[in-house]
Amino acid sequence: MATEGLTTTQAPFIEKARSDGRLYIDQPYELYSRENQQAWHLLYRRIRPRWEQYAVAKFLDGVDNIALNPNAVPRLSDINDFMRPLTGFTAKAVSGYIPAFQFFDCIRQREFPTTITIRALDSLDYLPEPDIFHDVAGHVPMHTDRRFADVLVRFGETSYLAAERLCEVRDQEERVQKLESVLKAMTRFFWFTIEFGLMRQGSATKVYGSGILSSFGELEYSVDSPEVKRRPFDFEDVINREFDIDHYQPLLYIVDSFDHLFEEVERLQSWMRQGKLDQVNLGKPDVGKADLESYLQGVPA
């Protein structure tokens, strides 16, 4: 049995896939080392009680729906067998970073790009890039809820619409300027909802954002800390709000329900069509060259 492991930034299998230009890959389950399995077990064991305290009920339902194993790294094929009949979504293994247009186009088609490596045992608390615990334990349980799945698909459609609108702009410089603004708006919306969103649940505030749901420390901090500003969701504020990724978030937004979230994605799409996302605040986050090019090259024929 191979023992080279699938540790984040230390996986020869992933390096080979990237050098071969393979973005979409299989999950070579036999490569997970004993340390990889132990990392998953430790991450799951310590975070489960906090999910029960702070996560929205639909997330906990999703953990049960995909039969998430607390003791072993999940097989994506098994997860997909549970998830596909519920919402049509599947987890699609990737070799690493996937540019924005391709990422959201996958979501539009109900495929979630999923990292298969897992963080090292000495880096359980923070990782600056996604791993399988973030993607599967943080994101995927929500993909079993039909209304949330519809939100993701509509967001993917909005991203596709952004690429379509580029066809109408003939001047290359103007095209890039508008695209940068639109991508900042979309990135901020995704960040403050899908990644770091809070939701009202009765009289309580609960977490549905995957960036929080996969973080042992930030789960408690996001809901209980007096240092966090928690505001009702404000669409215009969200699409203009700068953020940093390397520390706990000091400001979070609360939606009323997944129906409310769907309505806000509808608004995002409407503003896109009207050109009202073409001139948002151009501060953080930066838009990477690969993300810009993915839209410029991904414009539908």
Can you describe what's shown?
The protein is 52% helix and 9% strand. It has 13 helices and six strands. It has a four-stranded mixed beta sheet. A two-stranded parallel sheet has the order 1-2. The radius of gyration is 19 Å and the shape is globular. The termini are far apart. The mean pLDDT is 93.
Quick tags:
single chain; 301 residues; alpha/beta; Phenylalanine Hydroxylase; four-stranded mixed beta sheet; two-stranded parallel ribbon; 13 helices
Shape: globular
Named CATH topology:
Phenylalanine Hydroxylase
pLDDT averaged over residues: 93
Helix content: 40-55%
Please report the distance between the alpha carbons of the first and last residues.
47 Å
- Going by CATH, the architecture would be Orthogonal Bundle
- How many domains, as an integer? 1
Q: Supply the number of helical segments.
A: 13
- Label the structural class: alpha/beta
Order of helices and strands: HHHHEHEHHHEEHHEHEHH
Layout of secondary structure:
Elements (H helix, E strand, L loop, with lengths): L11 H8 L14 H21 L2 H9 L10 H12 L2 E5 L5 H9 L2 E5 L16 H8 L6 H21 L5 H24 L2 E4 L2 E4 L2 H4 L2 H9 L4 E4 L2 H6 L10 E5 L2 H17 L14 H9 L4
Parallel strand pairs: 1-2, 3-6, 5-6
Antiparallel strand pairs: 3-4
Helix pairs in contact: 2-10, 5-7, 7-8, 7-12
Task: Summarize the entry for a quick read.
The chain has 301 residues and is of the alpha/beta class. It contains 13 helices and six strands. The strands form two sheets. The chain has a four-stranded mixed β-sheet. The protein has a two-stranded parallel sheet with strand order 1-2.
